[in-house]
């Protein structure tokens, strides 16, 4: 799980338990894997992960302290009998709704064979993994397995272990001379892929998995990510090599990497895997499976930077859905529904972490609502209109012309949440359906509002009666003579951009930069498609471009100036709690909304600042890099309403730690 601490660092409470699962039973009796485990015969090319996978995974039950779940000590739940019981229920009650994966997470590993390949713990799985695969396949299900990135410390065996089917290669050839360690727990040696023996070693393990008829592999502790960064934790070569190894088996094996991957390497992940965990473990490592704060709620922020990376063959993975066991889940019914809603509209794989033998009625209805599942399987990820408050509207345009719209109240009090149709590109009447309740609500014009409980949601299908306009026009940058815009719509169609009544740009993409503007002037922009006009947005061009350095402001309450590879060589960190930063006075000649570029550093998962401008506050969650690199600035454009003359901008958050601030530029 993940929790906030005040300062530029992040803790991961689940590290110890997960490590226990990975190395559990290493002293068990060695069960030899056949020296020539046969890969299956060449199969027809099969597309993998065309849709987000659905099923069940074991780790949530391993990770909980809920009474009776792990009776023999931490992470002791996992064994053949328990997995078979879950598979039986999955096949009987959930398979008809699309759930078909049985994923055995950390804890199955017993030892390594004479070639350094993994061996199943015979005490936990007396019939072996091939038998288990045959069992679940016999029920029309798929079997998933788990490994940690790097060369296992026990597998190294002083460098003396030969590599199967690679004459002359030993484990000494796989590592660096200094035996540097890697992965999210520092519990493996980093492999050197400049030596072809390393690829041969992964090939040999992949053949073992294929010989067991495994359908899915989760590779855990991968960096950059898992809140680790730097050379030792750069596992991009491992991921590429695993992708090669799995493909060489001839068996279609879906490939997921975990956890909290860094978006800085998104291109590598997309090219070599079928999905990536965007965040830390959802489990709380406490007396329930999860809690809202640790760590369900952070995913509303953390998934955002990954939205455009999802699609057929590769999906954003939000971790297990633990919404079916009631009290053991650790969250309210409203929270359970919101949890399931976010996973569904984000097209995250839907894999349950609950005890399927104890699903309650409410949970079963959540997990088997076929309309909600259809939204998930459609593969069109929703995105927020904005995230400046706890009352949020997320939306996606569907292939049939309808919209998926989710209203969320993420605040601590009941609240009304409104979807503004004009911002979504909808004009006139629209038909509204409540997806969770599976009933039509009727017609709505202009907007739709709902009163929501604490952490509650309303999931809607909205079908416009007329053609739609470009949606959610946003400013992305500004100079004294230009403004850059983006919007949501189809690429390849014609869009005309207007400043007032004057056409200023035409494009077939969903972004444009309007040039030739006058400094210190206000412009109202509208984007038009086939005569359908977006909701207008207004921005002021700056008189001149000015950068305001954070360290020249007024840090207080523990906020501190640090050196970094930032503009002017410094930043302000330890903002949050009592720590606040007041920026140098910002002066503009004209009142209006300015596109302010914030340069910040957040090397953990997403952090939220409370930005107060002339006494008025809004929330600002920013994307984290998950790689512990607190020296590399990131940038985001924020629309901020400023008064003519002097303005005061302050960063803080009384409840949690905030990103470090480098500068703002107007």
From TrEMBL:
Segment forming the signal sequence: 1-37
Matches recorded under Pfam families: fn3 (PF00041), Melibiase_2 (PF16499), Melibiase_C (PF17801)
InterPro entries: Aldolase_TIM, CBM6, FN3_dom, FN3_sf, Galactose-bd-like_sf, GH, Glyco_hydro_27, Glyco_hydro_b
Fibronectin type-III domain ranges (all copies): 469-550
EC number(s) stated in the UniProt entry for this protein: 3.2.1.22
Keyword Repeat (UniProt): no
Superkingdom, taxonomy of origin: Bacteria
Catalytic activity from the UniProt record: Hydrolysis of terminal, non-reducing alpha-D-galactose residues in alpha-D-galactosides, including galactose oligosaccharides, galactomannans and galactolipids
Annotated ranges, domain CBM6: 546-666
Record's keyword terms, sorted: Carbohydrate metabolism, Disulfide bond, Glycosidase, Hydrolase, Polysaccharide degradation, Signal
CDD domains named in the record: CBM35_galactosidase-like (cd04081), GH27 (cd14792)
Family statement: Belongs to the glycosyl hydrolase 27 family.
Protein known as: Alpha-galactosidase
Species classification: Bacteria, Bacillati, Actinomycetota, Actinomycetes, Pseudonocardiales
